């Protein structure tokens, strides 16, 4: 099992170190671990946020564990050289179009949610975010109009096959949850009342639904979805949405749970390896420059991303369960980082998870 670790910038290396300790503790047979440069760190060393050798390493691996990229000192570079291009480039070059972002309440954490505990307790949602299309990857420009005014330009589009493949991922997820008795509903979130991109999205999701009669499909406009997510998160089971809306709604969902430092994600495509589905795993949060280097970052989202990697890419379901249980137990025992109103530091949280593994 070949695993590539890309720690990146800011808190990336700090949280990756804790995930690495957990990975090492599992003592997996036949495991090979590589480390590669991404983001601002890679730009400084190689002149590019996603060097060719990193991309080669990613292609050769069975799974990738990714920390975070983003560096305020790089914010004025030409866009193709900015740290964020590393994650966007990995997602697009490796055809990782399906982003799974689960948000579930942990026992004992209800009081830490930004919502009232009785509302927060209900949250158990899987956001399925399309990751390789939308306004993210359309033609873009910063240009001058004929009259000399500056204009920023980003082209938003979805082609039907792009919508269909993510719809299938979401329907299958809802179907799986129906079989487990933990769900079976799919809510497609769009802005079809205004955007043609969204009208096509909705049409294709409805067409795809014919293949999944056991899944209860609904549609919601994104503005309402943002409101409903804090009003009554328990109404959602699986949510499927486009790249931009999914980015925003998943950060919002994290605060229903309690902190962005808890939410993990998987970016999957269609390629199968010997052990499972090839994928990239990362926290949904960024490099958190405001707390970087201080030992304050919560590494749980990173550690939970490792668990998702073990489950989806490496066929190690039992190890994934163990890690998730250890994190849940640490939270229940009151091991809380500053993001959750506690005072446990990055290493201390890593220690606590390891002790409960
Ligand atoms: P962010 O997610 O980095 O931080 C937002 C807030 O959440 C900050 O106050 C931060 O301290 C806090 N936070 C985030 N993760 C935390 C953790 N694990 N523990 C405790 N607190 C945590 O978002 P931002 O500030 O908008 O972006 C910072 C940089 O990260 C930018 O350059 C952005 O482009 C980049 N970014 C990268 C990714 C990625 O690598 N996938 C994701 C999001 C943002
Ligand atoms: C995320 C991030 C990225 C995104 C950025 C850093 C490109 O916000 O992974 O959620 O917008 O997809
Ligand atoms: Mn984001």
Written overview of the protein:
The chain contains twelve helices and twelve strands. It has two domains: 1-97 and 262-357, 3-Layer(aba) Sandwich (Isopropylmalate Dehydrogenase); 124-256, Isopropylmalate Dehydrogenase. By secondary structure, the chain is α/β, with parallel strands linked by helices. The strands form two sheets. Strands 2-1-3-12-11-4-5-10-8-9 form a ten-stranded mixed beta sheet, with helices on both faces. A two-stranded antiparallel sheet has the order 6-7. The structure holds nicotinamide-adenine-dinucleotide (NAD), 3-isopropylmalic acid (IPM) and manganese (II) ion. Residues 84, 87-88, 247, 284, 286 line the site of 3-isopropylmalic acid. The site of 3-isopropylmalic acid (IPM) has 6 residues, from helix 4.
> What is the count of structural domains?
2
Find the CATH superfamily of the largest domain. Answer: Isopropylmalate Dehydrogenase
| Secondary structure tally: strands | 12
- Which segments are poorly predicted (pLDDT under 50) over 5 or more consecutive residues? none
Largest sheet entry: 10 strands, mixed
Query: What's the mean pLDDT score?
Result: 97
Which class of secondary structure composition applies to the elements?
alpha/beta
Identify the strand order in the major beta sheet.
Answer: 2-1-3-12-11-4-5-10-8-9
- Just name the CATH architecture of the largest domain: 3-Layer(aba) Sandwich
Number of helices: 12
CATH topology of the largest domain: Isopropylmalate Dehydrogenase
Q: Tell me the radius of gyration.
A: 20 Å
Amount of beta strand = 15-25%
Note the gap between the termini. 21 Å
Give the SSE string: EHEHHEHEHEEEHEHEHEHEEHHH
**Which shape, going by the Cα principal axes?**
globular
Helix percentage: 40-55%
CATH class of the largest domain, named Alpha Beta
Domain Isopropylmalate dehydrogenase-like: 2-353
Main location: cytoplasm
InterPro entries: IsoCit/isopropylmalate_DH_CS (IPR019818), IsoPropMal-DH-like_dom (IPR024084), Isopropylmalate_DH (IPR004429)
Binding site for substrate: 91, 101, 129, 223
